[in-house]
Design a protein that fits this description.
alpha+beta; D-amino Acid Aminotransferase, Chain A, domain 1; Rossmann fold; 3 domains; 4-stranded antiparallel β-sheet; 35% helix; elongated; binds guanosine-5'-diphosphate; binds manganese (II) ion
């Protein structure tokens, strides 16, 4: 789950990160009022869940409250990579001497939370990563000891920070690491971490992604979810406990089990078709989930045929068959259904479908060929 910059900053502030004061606004007048409270120059920043806001014109300096109102009016409602700006963060402006990149990710290869840092921070870090990866230092945290002081010094030396900034840098890296662990992040990033013209470090941007699988441990963070992060279909799927990823083909796939779902997508492709989605209805799927799955799949107008591929185990074939039958009257539009059904209570499942005029098959390859034919 992604959260906004202003939310990430509020999570990080208690960890001692030097974050300039600021507040979020949803109208130009609110932005002006915040600017008046902060005094001096401010930055007005679009709050959207995508990067590259600066380059898209979503980050603007303002010298007076009136100017903050103007900049907020220009940024609010702006479209940044398909995301409408609903809120802006108005925050005290910093005078930048240097922009550094500082990030923490889980490196799956080394199986360590890894600190990454680069002296080439700022808006072009993606390009640095692509063209000059040697300019990004990586330090893996020990799973038991965490980030150690010598590692922080290593990073600071590689960044060529002046001696006086070694301790502050260490404190920032340690705070970021602690927050990463406490909140079960998959990413925590400060880009840029700046050295200001007074020679002090300041975190002027913050990005945090939370590990969805650990969200059950953070009830308070679940509320931070912005519906903009997901499409309507993805949200409905999540609420019904379905794993759903929309793709751009014409064949809707409704499968139990992630492995079988992937195999099904391969088979559809091999048979000359294009899957419209990945969808795992999960083990023990009940009728209501099947109904929701069909509704979600058919909401995609490109879908011309649907393939059910069910291997009955914990999920019983008769239960899925009943779900399909129950969904038929409320289908948003008529669409050919192909069903492959094998496993527990297979015969009963086939019979339930046959009574509704649907012939289920037992071979995956046959089902894939049939659905591709139906979609033509
Ligand atoms: P992003 O483009 O979405 O990563 O947004 P950032 O918050 O990182 O801002 C983009 C760029 O705007 C930064 O790299 C800075 O160059 C500039 N910027 C952001 N905040 C300030 C500020 O307080 N003062 C100045 N002078 N520039 C800023
Ligand atoms: Mn940034």
């Amino acid at each position: 789950m992604k959260i906004h910059e202003y939310q990430a900053k509020e999570l990080l502030r208690p960890y001692g990160l030097p974050i300039p004061p600021g507040e979020v606004a949803s109208t130009p007048d609110e932005a002006a009022a915040i600017a008046a409270r902060l005094e001096g120059q401010v930055v007005v920043k679009a709050q959207v869940l995508v990067g590259g806001r600066g380059k898209a014109g979503g980050v603007k300096l303002a010298d007076t409250p009136a100017e903050a109102r103007e900049k907020a009016a220009a940024i609010l409602g702006m479209d940044i990579k398909g995301n409408r700006v609903e809120q802006v963060l108005v925050t005290q402006a910093a005078d930048i001497a240097r922009e550094i990149y500082l990030g923490l990710v889980l490196d799956r290869t080394t199986r360590r939370v890894t600190l990454m840092a680069s002296s080439e921070g700022g808006v072009d870090i993606e390009e640095v990563a692509a063209t000059a990866p040697e300019k990004i230092i990586k330090v893996g945290a020990n799973p038991l000891l965490g980030l150690q002081d010598f590692q922080m010094r290593q990073a600071a030396f590689a960044l060529d920070l002046p001696g006086g900034l070694l301790r502050p840098f260490g404190a920032i890296a340690r705070g970021l690491y602690q927050a990463f662990m406490d909140y079960d992040c998959s990413l925590a990033e400060i880009n840029p971490l700046i050295v200001n013209t007074d020679g002090a470090l300041q975190a002027i941007d913050a990005k945090i992604n939370l590990d969805d699988n650990a969200l059950y441990r953070h009830a308070d963070l679940v509320e931070l979810r912005d519906p903009q992060e997901e499409t309507a279909a993805e949200r409905e799927a999540r609420e019904h406990g379905l794993s759903y990823v929309q793709l751009d083909g014409t064949i809707g796939c409704c499968v139990n089990g992630a492995g079988l779902a992937m195999a099904t997508m391969d088979l559809v492709q091999a048979a000359g078709g294009q899957p419209a989605n990945f969808l795992d209805i999960g083990g023990g799927a009940q009728s209501d989930r099947v109904i929701a799955a069909l509704r979600i799949i058919l909401a995609d107008e490109r879908v011309r045929a649907v393939l059910f591929n069910i291997f009955g185990g914990i999920t019983r074939c008769d239960e899925v068959a009943r779900g399909i039958v129950a969904a038929l009257p409320s289908l948003p539009r008529p669409v050919p259904l192909t069903v492959r059904l094998v496993g527990v209570n297979e015969a009963e499942g086939h019979q339930i479908l046959r009574a509704e005029g649907i012939t289920a098959v037992t071979s995956m390859a046959e089902a894939a060929r049939a659905v591709v034919e139906a979609a033509r």
